[in-house]
Amino acid sequence: MKNKIILYLFIFSVLMLLFMYMNQKRIYEDQESKINDLKENVAFYKGLNESLTNETFDLNYFTLMGNDNAMTYFENYGLEADFMQQMVSEQIYAQNRVEGDNPLIPYVGMEGKMKINKIRFLNHRWVIADFTDGRYWGEMILEYNLDENEDLTLKTIASLLYSGD
After folding, report:
1. Residue where a domain terminates, one of 12, 30, 60
2. Sheet strand arrangement including 137-146
3. Element (H, E) at 54
4. Beta strand pairing status for 137-146 and 152-162?
5. Count of domains forming the chain
6. Are 85 and 129 part of one and the same domain?
7. How far apart are CA 78 and CA 143, in angstroms?
8. What's the pLDDT tens digit per position in 60-109?
9. 83 and 52 within one domain
10. Is the pTM of this model over 0.70?
11. How far is residue 104's CA from residue 102's CA, in Å, rounded to a whole number?
12. Residue 74 shares a structural domain with residue 90
C-alpha cells in the first residue's frame, strides 16, 4: 500500500511538472511574441520620428528663427531676431484694431472687415499673412524694414483673394 501511494505521488509530481513546464513555455512564447511586436513598433516609430524631424527641419528653413542668415542680419544691427519677430507681429496685428479694414490688406471687406488672422515670417525681410472678412479670404506677402530711426515700415508686396464660394 505504501508503495502504491509513493507511485501515485510520483506520477502526480511528474504530471504537475509537465503541466508547469507547458504553462511556462506558453507564457514564455507569448512574452517573446509581445516583445517582437514591441520591437517592430519601436523600429516603425523611430523611422517615423526621423522622417518627421527631417520634415520639420525642412519646414523651418523658411522661417526667421530657422534661418541663420536672417538671424545674423539682425544681430549685425544689435537686435535679437525673436525681439524683431515679436515687434513686427504686434505691429501687424495692431493694424486689425484700426477702424474699418486693416490698411495692409489691399481689398475691401464685402461681408465684414478684412482682418489678418495668421502670419508667418519667411526671413529677415518678408512675412506671409492670411486674412479674411468672414466669407472671403486671401493671402499676402508683406515686407518689413527698420529705418535709421528704428521706425518699422510695413509694405504689402503681393496679395491674392480667393472666392467665397
Report:
1. 60
2. 115-121, 126-132, 137-146, 152-162
3. helix 2-60
4. antiparallel
5. 2
6. yes
7. 20
8. 778 888 888 888 888 888 888 888 999 999 999 999 888 888 889 998 88
9. no
10. no
11. 5
12. yes
